[in-house]
């Protein structure tokens, strides 16, 4: 799992730099907005039920849910697309923007399908295949974005990303073809009732978090310009490379292991979680020091310093990404412990601090102030949730 994630992230990081130099800030700004909308829709269209594929113990129930989720995703996405299409008639002069939104809905369908397949393979512990597909996804994505540059200098990043995710989705379907069967609606109803906290707490929490995070591209673009958001997006993408390396290598493996240890050996779960947290922080800190010293120097040389404020944004956001790396890889412990209401509370907090930070920054006409405030309060939030989770695991271990 780690090897595949490492290869994928190295290829992705190097490709990101080449594409940034090639496309420029404006194209990256458009791509960032597309990714933000896609992220929101991909949460909405599955209702986060794919997580139940790992924690559901009955084989027949899991297989039925696996097949049902594809239909649920399609229906919910079509409803969203219909509303977007209707609204677009009232904004005839904004057709280009609505076209990007519709493309993001299409992307979210393929992305959600892939996520469903990945969770299913996670339960089957087929981590080798998951790793291989991560590498393929990055390779297809970069190759198509490079090929499409000559024809689509502003939207080539969007089109390349969309085509690659659809190709990967087709590949996933061929792998899991033996698991397809008809849907048992009564069994699905039973599964939904047994996992109602996912829909009641996790879905609203994740949606609130997604709105809080993904509204920033729109607000930054609106008040500070597309180029500024393009630089912000590249900075976040650079920092996210080591974060996703850690998260993709740990999160799903930990989720499966934590679910097993909770019932069999809760004291070992506490020690395992602590070790993972410490190693994640140490590894992320090493990457961040490297990025903000030698890394940023070579980045500015490579990009010819055309990406103004890249160094500043990267430094500020480094503290937030460090706090995230301490908790996010083990965040599924909240679901395992059935403390899903904490997701809702925490993400409401994120929603508030993001809007507060941006509002203050807008008053002073400084995106740096916005990023500093969002980073400071974000760090407090992530670390508080980490300590809460460890405390709850210890309680279970002491019983």
TrEMBL record:
InterPro entries: Poly_Biosynth_Transport (IPR050833). Coiled coil: none annotated. The chain crosses the membrane at residues 30-47, 68-91, 97-114, 158-176, 197-224, 236-255, 276-303, 315-337, 344-361, 367-390. The lineage of its organism: Bacteria, Pseudomonadati, Bacteroidota, Flavobacteriia, Flavobacteriales. PANTHER family: O-ANTIGEN TRANSPORTER-RELATED, PST FAMILY PREDICTED COLANIC ACID TRANSPORTER. Pfam families: Polysacc_synt_3 (PF13440). It comes from Lutibacter oricola. Keywords: Cell membrane, Membrane, Transmembrane, Transmembrane helix. It is a multi-pass membrane protein. It is found in: Cell membrane. Its main location: membrane. This is Membrane protein involved in the export of O-antigen and teichoic acid. One of its GO terms (cellular component) is plasma membrane.
């Amino acid at each position: 799992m780690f090897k595949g994630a490492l290869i994928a992230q190295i290829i992705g990081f190097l490709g990101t730099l080449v594409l940034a130099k090639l496309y420029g800030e404006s194209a990256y700004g458009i791509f960032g907005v597309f990714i933000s909308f896609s992220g929101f829709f991909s949460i909405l269209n599955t209702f986060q039920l794919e997580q139940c594929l790992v924690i559901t113990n009955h084989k027949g129930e899991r297989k039925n849910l696996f097949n049902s989720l594809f239909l649920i995703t399609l229906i919910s996405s079509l409803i969203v697309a219909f509303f977007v299409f209707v609204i677009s008639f009232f904004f005839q002069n904004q057709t280009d923007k609505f076209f990007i939104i519709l493309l993001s809905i299409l992307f979210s369908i393929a992305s959600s399908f892939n996520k469903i397949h990945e969770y299913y393979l996670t339960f089957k512990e087929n981590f080798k295949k998951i790793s291989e597909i991560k590498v393929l996804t990055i390779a297809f994505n970069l190759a198509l974005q490079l090929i499409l540059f000559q024809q689509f200098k502003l939207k080539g990043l969007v089109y390349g990303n969309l085509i690659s995710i659809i190709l990967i989705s087709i590949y996933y379907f061929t792998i899991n073809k033996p698991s397809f069967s008809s849907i048992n609606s009564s069994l699905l109803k039973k599964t939904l009732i047994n996992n109602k906290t996912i829909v009641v707490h996790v879905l609203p929490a994740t949606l609130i978090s997604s709105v809080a995070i993904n509204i920033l591209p729109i607000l930054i673009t609106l008040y500070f310009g597309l180029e500024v958001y393009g630089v912000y997006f590249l900075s976040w993408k650079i920092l996210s490379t080591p974060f996703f390396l850690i998260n993709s290598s740990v999160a799903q493996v930990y989720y499966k292991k934590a679910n097993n240890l909770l019932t069999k050996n809760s004291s070992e779960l506490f020690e395992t979680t602590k070790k993972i947290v410490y190693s994640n922080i140490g590894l992320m800190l090493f990457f961040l020091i490297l990025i903000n010293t030698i890394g940023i120097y070579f980045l500015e040389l490579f990009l010819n310093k055309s990406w103004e404020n890249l160094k500043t944004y990267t430094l500020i956001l480094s503290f937030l990404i460090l706090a995230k790396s301490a908790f996010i890889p083990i965040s599924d412990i909240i679901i395992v412990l059935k403390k899903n209401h904490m997701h809702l509370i925490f993400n409401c907090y994120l929603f508030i601090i993001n809007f507060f930070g941006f509002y203050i920054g807008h008053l002073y006409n400084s995106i740096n102030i916005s990023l500093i405030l969002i980073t400071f309060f974000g760090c407090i939030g992530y670390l508080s949730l980490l300590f809460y989770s460890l405390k709850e695991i210890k309680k279970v271990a002491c019983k």
